[in-house]
Specification:
The complex is a heterodimer of chains A (about 375) and B (about 350).
Chain A: H1 20-44, H2 48-67, H3 70-74, H4 83-99, H5 104-131, H6 137-159, E1 182-184, E2 203-208, E3 211-217, H7 220-238, H8 240-250, H9 252-257, H10 262-288, E4 290-292, H11 300-310, H12 320-345, H13 348-379
Antiparallel strand pairs in A: 1-4, 2-3
Helix pairs in contact in A: 1-12, 2-7, 2-10, 2-11, 2-12, 4-5, 4-6, 4-10, 5-6, 5-10, 7-8, 8-10, 11-12, 11-13, 12-13
Chain B: H1 3-20, H2 22-40, H3 45-64, H4 66-71, H5 81-96, H6 101-129, H7 134-155, E1 175-177, H8 185-188, E2 192-194, E3 197-199, H9 201-219, H10 221-231, H11 233-238, H12 243-269, E4 271-273, H13 282-291, H14 301-326, H15 332-350
The chains are: A mainly alpha (about 375), B mainly alpha (about 350).
Chain lengths: ~375, ~350
């Protein structure tokens, strides 16, 4: 367990070179997955309208969470598996809002507001812990997610109704202790996705030649929010704080010498990521419409990390475009693989397993490749 | 009592406390209070003790598998599923042949061990290239192997009707009973009862053999070399030890122990669990060895043994006791999650302070 080398790995020059070789170098991973996706689509013989509807829907549902990973990567914390904890903060806010029966966009906004202090507090705790585990942030953040899951269950399954007084026959189990396993979000479902329907209901109909395309229904408002987040994230990287984060991410010691408060900067990056993840989970759940109290958040970290890696990010460099391309590609594969498994092997279960194999495998390969390249770069 | 002897006692208590460490103290107190509760609630202590002993025997070798990687400096082996999968392939193949009793168990071991050596070697090659990120890479190598093997279980050419899905006739079942093959062969070997407590002699003997063997190994020349590699790689290299070779050996040893460990576990449990069951196999083992007092820098047989006893006794008695006390609410699973992961975080955040 040697401590993480401070030697920065040279990333390939990202000049304005538009040559094929530079595109291949920077985008080799996404191109690889694009090829697999296309092969899968061909094998499954998918209806293109179904595919586009599904992928755009899933993009709206997940992109916010994936983008929340970017800031910690910039600050040198690696991929923050701790966004699971942010998701729990979002869900806590959702439980409160559902309890008071506040519906629609107002309820969604209120949940977003309530989740901020919770997520900030949790993010601060995560950030502090990660500062004690420098060089092992990723594995620590992953285990912290599991740990927090235990605390979450303790609070909502045991303490609620016993220590925390709450009476709500809709939310609480028959015994009066603990939340129900699934909570229906009738009042909140699609509250953000369809918030701009008064402007345009999001349906798209076109046709190219003889093939009719549509109707596709897009979550207009969610896509807009994601767009705003992209702009804000880019803006943050340009501010003084963003520059400091970048410096810390490049080399903690040099940043320290340059007068940057390294630990504080890292904590702020973690807190930002946690708050964004809380909002991301709210967007995710308003789209799904029901909420599995004890499992909705569990896989958030893994799927988001896999998505951004498919988009070509590494543990030390991640951009908005990595997040967007990755989310689109990963979820295309997600839609396609069970159907492709059905066609190729006659068992749709194979596709289901292939899906999780893919998610785990992508992370394993990406982490291994990067650690490998890092060492090769060092020994030069 | 004179002041001096008071100071002595205080010093002794402080030393004992420092040796034990706060986490272990908390867990021991928690464990004792659970036992006290069990006595107050007039529960059947014999059953609790019997179950605890069996659980300790079941998990002992899986926890032991943590030691070689910690000793050679690779860290906590979150890639334990690599070995577990090898063990499961051995078990399933032996069952497919319809071998019974000890023959079945031996055949499963004979298939599992070479597989584990090969898989462990490949895994070690990978870890060698990702130094510094072994734990993270190991975790996800384990996860992806388990999910990849899900497809194997579904498509593999096993034909024994006792093992494949009753309906549809394709793919292995999620849990396969070992009743008619090698279920409980070790548990029942020379088993006897004292004071209503059943002692699974064979199981404990088998576990003991491996603990002694590993203890002897660490005393041998190769074992010492491995520890040197773990504690000071530069020094090891300069004194002519093959650092990479030792790390490889450590990982292979850990993988083989994991394969044997899951076979022992399965025969005692009475079922082989396939598909996503091995996904989390590493975490209880990791937590146990850490609860026993191991750190990323130092791990001994004693740590593994104490950890297995503490953690698995706790897991075994927490469920019945809390269910009796709290009338139905099951906090044992929650306690397990908080305790094991809390322990791992504690170890990860403390490793640098030597």
């Amino acid at each position: 367990m040697s401590e993480q080398s401070t030697a920065q790995v040279e990333t390939p020059a990202r000049g304005l070179g538009v040559g094929i070789s530079s595109i291949l170098r920077n985008w080799s991973v996404p191109i690889f997955f694009l090829v697999i996706s296309i092969a899968g689509i061909a094998a499954a013989r998918l209806d293109i309208n179904y595919l586009i509807n599904e992928v755009v829907g899933r993009f709206g549902r997940n992109a916010f969470l994936v983008i929340s990973l970017i800031i910690p990567v910039m600050a040198g914390l690696g991929l923050n598996f701790g966004i699971v904890i942010g998701a729990m903060a979002g869900q806590t806010a959702l439980v409160i809002v559902t309890h008071y029966r506040i519906d629609g966009l107002a309820g969604f906004m209120l949940a977003a507001v309530i989740s901020v202090p919770i997520a900030m507090m949790l993010g601060w705790l995560v950030g502090r812990t990660l500062n004690q585990a420098k060089g092992r942030e990723m594995v620590t953040s992953m285990i912290m997610g599991f740990f927090a899951n235990g605390i979450y269950q303790l609070v909502f399954l045991v303490l609620l109704g016993t220590l925390i007084p709450m009476k709500d026959p809709v939310l609480i189990l028959g015994s009066g202790i603990g939340l129900r396993n699934t909570i229906d979000l009738i009042g909140l479902s699609y509250s953000l996705d369809r918030a701009m329907d008064w402007l345009w209901n999001g349906f798209v109909f076109t046709s190219i030649g003889a093939t009719r395309l549509g109707p596709w229904r897009f979550p207009i408002c969610t896509l807009l929010v994601i767009g705003i987040l992209c702009v804000v994230t880019t803006f943050i990287t340009r501010t003084k704080l963003g520059q400091e984060m970048r410096a810390v991410g490049q080399d903690m010691h040099i940043a320290q010498v340059a007068g940057i408060n390294v630990d504080r900067t890292r904590i702020i990056a973690t807190m930002m990521s946690t708050v964004l993840a809380a909002w991301g989970q709210l967007i995710f759940l308003q789209n799904i419409g029901t909420f599995n109290t004890y499992s909705s958040h569990e896989q958030v970290g893994m799927f988001s990390v896999a998505a951004i890696l498919v988009g070509g990010a590494t543990t030390r460099r991640a951009t908005i475009w990595n997040a967007i391309v990755g989310t689109l590609l990963f979820h295309t594969l997600f839609v396609v693989s069970p159907l492709a498994g059905q066609r190729l092997f006659g068992v749709s279960q194979v596709g289901e397993y292939f899906r999780s194999f893919l998610a785990y495998g992508v992370i394993a390969v990406a982490l291994a490749l990067h650690a490998w390249q890092g060492r090769a770069g060092k020994s030069k | 009592m004179s002041d001096e002897s008071k100071a002595d006692v205080r010093q002794y208590v402080r030393n004992a406390y420092e040796q034990l460490g706060l986490p272990r103290l908390i867990i021991i107190i928690f464990l004792l209070s659970l036992f006290a509760l069990a006595v107050i609630m007039r529960m059947d202590l014999a059953i609790l003790v019997k179950d605890s002993i069996t659980r300790i025997g079941m998990n002992g070798i899986l926890v032991l598998a943590m030691l070689p990687t910690l000793a050679c400096g690779v860290g906590l082996n979150f890639g334990l599923p690599v070995g577990v999968i090898a063990g499961l392939v051995g078990a399933v193949t032996s069952m497919n042949w319809g071998l019974k009793g000890f023959a079945g168990f031996a055949a499963a071991m004979a298939i599992a061990i070479p597989l584990a050596v090969i898989a462990g070697y490949l895994y070690a090659m990978l870890l060698e290239r990702v130094q510094g990120q072994e734990m993270m890479v190991g975790t996800y190598v384990g996860f992806s192997l388990v999910s990849g093997m899900c497809m194997f279980w579904l498509l593999a050419p096993y034909r024994n009707p006792a093992m494949i899905f009753a309906l549809g006739g394709k793919g292995l079942r999620t849990t396969i009973t070992l009743d008619r093959t090698f279920g409980k062969v070790l548990n029942d070997f020379l088993g006897f009862s004292i004071l209503d407590v059943y002692i699974p002699t064979g199981l404990l003997l088998f576990m003991g053999v491996f603990y002694v063997a590993i203890a002897l190994f660490f005393k041998s020349k190769a074992g010492l070399a491995m520890r040197t590699v773990g504690s000071n790689p530069m020094y090891a290299r300069s004194s002519g030890i093959n650092v990479q070779g030792m790390r490889t050996l450590g990982v292979i040893l850990s993988t083989v122990l994991a394969a044997i460990g899951i076979l022992v576990y399965s025969q005692s449990y009475g079922f082989v669990q396939l598909y996503t069951a091995p996904l989390t196999a590493a975490f209880p083992a990791v937590a146990s060895v850490l609860i026993g007092g191991a750190s990323l820098r130092k791990a001994t047989i004693g740590h593994a043994l104490l950890g297995t006893v503490l953690f698995h006794t706790l897991l075994t008695i927490a469920l019945p006791v809390t269910q009796t006390v709290l009338q139905g609410a099951d906090i044992s699973e929650i306690a397990r999650m908080i305790m094991s992961n809390g322990m791992i975080i504690y170890a990860l955040t403390r490793a640098e302070r030597r």
